[in-house]
């Protein structure tokens, strides 16, 4: 039997290279593996756990759907849908919340980080984030989740919930594992922390043109280009990571050798890298233009995806309700 896969991206606007390399590349790989049945959603309910603008939420959600399609997520192979259109997720998450403690949620690193970022907006929804994510995954009984390494603490919570419910109510949830890509952790261009939408200057967007990519790379901090050993952190390490991902391990090794030898000329490195990134993004940007000109097609994908997702989701929800004594 095919195993199920689920992943999602919050509806916070256009995707950046961190989302692409850490999540979508894994989604693509699993979509073309006949051993898996793949479900890919846009997490609009997770997007409202931090301050947001209701006027742009719907268009941000649609942008992510279009980005999925432009990158090659194929509605013939994957079920593509919008989280809030499947109300079973929220209902299941409430049932799941009986199996987790408040203290466990408060101690998650992802929660603490958000509290630091938005101390005046620590809502119940934010605390609830991992419980809803567990419902997103387990409602499809997904055993594999292509996400970046930052999501591991949430997957741990999903496994705990699955284990507890299986034990208490004799259910058959899998304990979902993360599917890692080579880009599971994409560092920030500012040389510290990870690439993130909320840190200005840290990211390259999928829709950036060559000039913008060049400008963003130009801002990455560098050093003299020469030394005894290649830095493992900071701007130089970030640039080399990108060289490895976009130009290959061979090119990266060449630069590493140059660092301990004649030295790296960062102007040349950044130029070559910008070209390589842009080359990979060009077909995606072209496909996106076609999709933007065809809104009926995008609508159809969204409607059909919701129908398919809902069939599976409603069945699991009913099973859980019955097992918990809430059945008919
Ligand atoms: P979000 O929108 O924060 O991130 C979407 C995906 O992008 C990955 N990612 C990165 N990977 C590598 N390096 C980076 N710098 C980087 N930045 C972001 C994230 O790991 C993630 O895979 N909570 C999820 C959304 C979600 C979800 C789900 C995912 C809701 N329900 C169920 C899987 C299953 C999130 O982090 O979104």
Describe this structure as you would to a colleague:
This protein has 328 residues and is mostly helical. It has 2 domains: 3-185 and 295-323, HUPs (Rossmann fold), CATH 3.40.50; 210-289, Tyrosyl-Transfer RNA Synthetase, CATH 1.10.240.10. The protein has helices spanning 17-31, 44-47, 54-71, 88-96, 102-106, 109-117, 124-138, 152-169, 210-218, 234-247, 249-260, 266-292, 295-323, and strands at residues 3-10, 36-43, 78-82, 144-146, 177-179. The mean pLDDT is 96. Bound molecules: tryptophanyl-5'AMP. Tryptophanyl-5'AMP binds at residues 6-10, 18-19, 22-23, 43, 46, 133, 136-137, 145, 147-148, 150-151, 183-186, 194-196.
Describe the SSE topology.
Blueprint lengths: L2 E8 L6 H15 L4 E8 H4 L6 H18 L6 E5 L5 H9 L5 H5 L2 H9 L6 H15 L5 E3 L5 H18 L7 E3 L30 H9 L15 H14 L1 H12 L5 H27 L2 H29 L5
Bound molecules: tryptophanyl-5'AMP.
């Amino acid at each position: 039997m095919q195993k199920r896969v689920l992943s999602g991206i919050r509806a916070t606007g256009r995707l950046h290279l961190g989302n692409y390399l850490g999540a979508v590349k894994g989604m693509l790989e699993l979509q073309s593996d006949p051993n898996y049945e793949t479900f890919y959603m846009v997490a609009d309910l997770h997007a409202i756990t931090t301050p947001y603008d209701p006027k742009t939420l719907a268009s941000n959600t649609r942008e992510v759907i279009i980005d999925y399609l432009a990158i090659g997520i194929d509605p013939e192979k994957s079920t593509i849908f919008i989280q809030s259109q499947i109300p079973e997720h929220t209902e299941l998450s409430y049932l799941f919340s009986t199996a987790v403690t408040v203290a466990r949620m408060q101690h998650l690193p992802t929660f603490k980080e958000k509290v630091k970022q938005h101390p005046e907006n620590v809502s119940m929804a934010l605390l609830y984030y991992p419980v809803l994510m567990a419902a997103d995954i387990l409602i499809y009984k997904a055993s594999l989740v292509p996400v970046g390494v930052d999501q591991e603490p949430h997957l741990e919570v999903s496994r705990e919930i699955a284990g507890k419910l299986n034990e208490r109510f004799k259910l058959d949830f899998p304990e979902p594992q993360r599917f890692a890509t080579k880009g599971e952790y994409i560092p920030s261009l500012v040389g510290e922390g990870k690439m993130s939408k909320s840190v200005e200057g840290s990211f390259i967007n999928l829709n950036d043109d060559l000039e913008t990519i060049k400008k963003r790379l130009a801002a990455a901090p560098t050093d003299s280009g020469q030394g005894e050993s290649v830095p493992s952190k900071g701007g130089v390490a970030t640039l080399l990571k990108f060289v490895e991902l976009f130009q290959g391990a061979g090119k990266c090794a060449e630069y590493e050798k140059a660092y301990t030898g004649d030295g790296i000329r960062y102007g040349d490195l950044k130029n070559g890298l910008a070209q390589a990134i842009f080359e990979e993004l060009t077909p995606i940007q072209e496909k996106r233009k076609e999709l933007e000109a065809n809104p009926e097609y995008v609508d159809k994908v969204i409607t059909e995806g919701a129908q398919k997702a809902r069939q599976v989701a409603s069945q699991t929800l009913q099973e859980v309700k019955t097992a918990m004594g809430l059945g008919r």
